[in-house]
Design goal:
Length: 89
């Protein structure tokens, strides 16, 4: 492997899935500002919107997780184009 291309600050980080509140621990060099306590130990926490614990491909369930309203925002933008397209026909 090439020297000097890998991060130095690997540590145990808690990754938290915000859609179902599941937490898992993994070694990472990700920058975090918050911490979480798990089993009496304090870990830096990285919050994710979706993970393998909530993704439909892995769970087999088709649930819509929209924490930021992005689907509604897309639909409101697309509706203008859809209406214009139907008027031209």
């Amino acid at each position: 492997m090439k020297a000097g291309i890998h991060p130095e600050g690997y540590r145990v980080v808690a990754f938290k899935d915000m859609s179902n509140d599941q937490v898992f621990l993994c070694r990472s060099a990700v920058n975090t500002k918050e911490t979480i306590e798990i089993d009496g130990e304090t870990y830096p926490v990285y919050k994710m919107e979706i993970s393998s614990a909530s993704h439909p491909f892995y769970t087999g369930k088709q649930t819509l997780v929209d924490t930021a309203g992005r689907v509604d925002k897309f639909m409101s933008r697309y509706q203008k184009h859809y209406d214009k397209r139907n008027q031209n026909k």
